[in-house]
Amino acid sequence: MSGTVVIGAQWGDEGKGKITDFLAESSDVVVRYQGGNNAGHTVEVGDRKYKLHLIPSGILYDDKLCVIGDGVVIDPEALLNEISYLEGEGVKVTPEKLVISDRAHLIMPYHKVLDGLSEKSRGKGDIGTTGKGIGPCYSDKHERSGLRVCDLKHPEYFKERLMAAIEVKNRIIKDVYKGEELDFNAIYNSYIEYYSRLKDYIADTTVVVYNALKGNKKVLFEGAQGTLLDIDYGTYPYVTSSHPISGGVCIGAGVGPTMISRAVGVCKSYTTRVGKGPFPTELEDEMGEYIREKGFEYGTTTGRARRCGWLDLVILKYAARLSGLTSLAITKLDTLSNIDKIKVCVGYEFDGKVIDYFPASMEDLAKCRPVYKEFDGWDDSVQNASSFDELHDNAKKYIRFIEEYTGVKVSIVSVGPNRSQTIVAGDI
Predict the structure, then answer these.
(1) pLDDT tens digit sequence for 365-401
(2) 41 tagged catalytic
(3) Which of 19, 75, 337, 374 has minimal CB crowding within 10 Å?
């Protein structure tokens, strides 16, 4: 059995879509195991750029099976729009290429409404959600009042559950947030229609994935967001509502841990994050702006500008430990080109001493000041390199130090946005 998981090793937006797309070429099945359409993956092939949100990055290959697992929360309207978008771009999205879990929870209109109203009510203490209804949907899932894809198969049962849910949600919307109530009939009819269009894609994906693994197929598990957005291990409360780390694969795809043999951590050659929360290496100066503009650091889903900073190896080592990373994929090495001196965080100054671990408390993290090691930079030649040996010597030193500090070998180096600008630097 050969299961490989691709993990975001920072705050998300590391380039997982590109790395998944690259690894999908040698895989048979690509499985998305958590998150929702709050995530965004951009993949460039030739002169074409594809923006994905729910559908796994392997969909760009005609001979790969893509799976949306039970740990994903699905907005059926958004999913149908994404299918239409891809087909408009000439990408086939058929039931033979895409399978949707019947156990996945449905994002409902009231989830999106409550997401927005809740954020607004927090004022300056807002979390910075995408407003896609992800958090409220996961809340209902764990509160055991959620609706699942399989419920749509039984219209009367779905109607009964939906009616009970809307009765409660409308009271909250109206009485707590002073918003406008939602119409039951409009929601019910639209979701029955969504089901009629999606029913051929729906299956028990735990069986599909298990049979693929038992049949010695190569299965690639794709996460959304990143380690520092994990609900338990991220910068809480500025986190997502699921588990992007490798442990989330077992729950979100319905496979045992013995079926996963490799964990590839994806990280940028610097650090970015979207939204609020402590960020020890953040650059709020011209250098931060240079990295943002050169790396085009704007969210695929929201378009929000990303906060940018130097590479934080404390975070990366933390991610390696949490997910048992077997290798690293370094992306956007080209973005740091033409910078004379490049810094890397190797520890935090905290309460009068230097620590090399990631604090749980956001109050403690906010007090941490980065301890840097400085490296000589490199020129634009890196984006034309087709092998590790062709990289600028200073870039190679930079990568080797990352390996030394984290204890994890670098297997892939991305030197540009295109699929072709990807270097295999070691065993994946």
Answers:
(1) 999 999 999 999 999 899 999 999 999 999 999 999 9
(2) yes
(3) 374
